[in-house]
Amino acid sequence: MIQALSQTPGFEIKALSVYTLQLCSEPNDSYRRPNCFTIPSVLKACVSAFSSVKPIQEIHAQLLKLGTYSDAYVGSTLLDSYSKCNGIEFAQRVFEEMPERNVVSWNSMISAFAKGGDVNSAKRLFEEMPERNLVSWTSLISGYAQNGYFSETLATFENMGKAGVKPNEITLVSVISACANLGALEFGRKIHSFMENNHYNFDLFVASSLVDMYCKCGVVQDALILYKKMQLKNVVTCSSMIVGLALNGRPMEAIGIFEEMRFHCMIPNDITFIGVLCACCHAGLVEKGKFYFSCMTKEYSLVPKLQHYACIIDLLGRAGQLDQAYQFINEMPIKPDAIVWGALLGACRIHKNNKLGIFAAQRILELDPEHSGGLVFLSNAYARVGDWNGLKKVRRIMKTLGMKKVPGKSWIELSNVVHQFFAGDKSHPQDDNIYAN
């Protein structure tokens, strides 16, 4: 009964009520006392119902009293429950106090560290493991990918292959994501080919990851081919394709996919609208962009975020409608951030509107006093209008901050090695390699 209730959404509290009745049974009635099969379901119900450490601690105390804490399966579940409720320190204590650890316990702790952002501890534990399985490798690889350690993701994946462990779809999604963020196109293509040759299941998650990877690597045509082959598509897949087309200079195709979504009654999300608004910006479709922005609230009941407002400011600004963009900012129901003011500042730079640009730059610096873009614009604008006192003040601030222009950065993949270059960098490319086969 407890297991059934804990696995049914909305019935977790009832599962805990049954568990409480079980605890209130006669102390000598061993048949009704909770055991190692009951506790994992109770912990699952606690996590789903409360997402808090305190109820887990109460169950933990009962385990110690009941004497079922020593069971490896119960210990692993307790550890995992703490980690899901952001109680990483409690999870670590459980792991260290476990009288017997199995591979599940080790994997749970590695996953807990990785999800908490402590990839160094996850790696250390991984290296200390007496034995590793697919879940061990996948936990570390996913942890690296989720925390932005993309080169380490690819290096660990290669070591996994050398160890003779075959990846599953979950592993490959993390690796594909790392390829997308590194711009490692050839590595990503090898993963795609490997999956086809080994008859992997191209489910929605895998296919969406590949579409995103090809788009981010600038090979939007390959992304489109894969997208059109997919029998099933969801909002994530469509949104990835829309954003990819918009950012790769094919705005009308992005808008076309969005219209297909609407035709098939697929409900878009926040990311979808960022993509379609970005497409309108690149195509100069001001009225269409305004229409889609209104659709967010009127048709889909989505609350626009600062990114959506920034898209509209950018749309109006690119079209030279600077006064309307400024008025739009003043009418926003939420306080504009540096990104919103930055969109207006960019438009002022394009259309050489020093007066409004200076105002926008000052608003940016109020929010972020060390914003290099705002300071550089102010410096140049004051010089153009002959405000030497203003120029002197800005230059003094820049000197005090030790501000230097952030160099441009790019990636290139040569002979299966990804290199990172900075503008003006004269170092040998081998010094900057990110990963190598």
Automatic annotation (TrEMBL):
Signal peptide: none
BP term (GO), one: RNA modification
InterPro entries cross-referenced by the UniProt entry: E2_motif, E_motif, PPR_At4g14850-like_plant, PPR_rpt, TPR-like_helical_dom_sf
GO molecular function: RNA binding
Annotated PPR repeat ranges: 102-136, 137-167, 234-268
Classification via NCBIfam families: PPR (TIGR00756)
Protein name: Pentacotripeptide-repeat region of PRORP domain-containing protein
Organism: Papaver somniferum
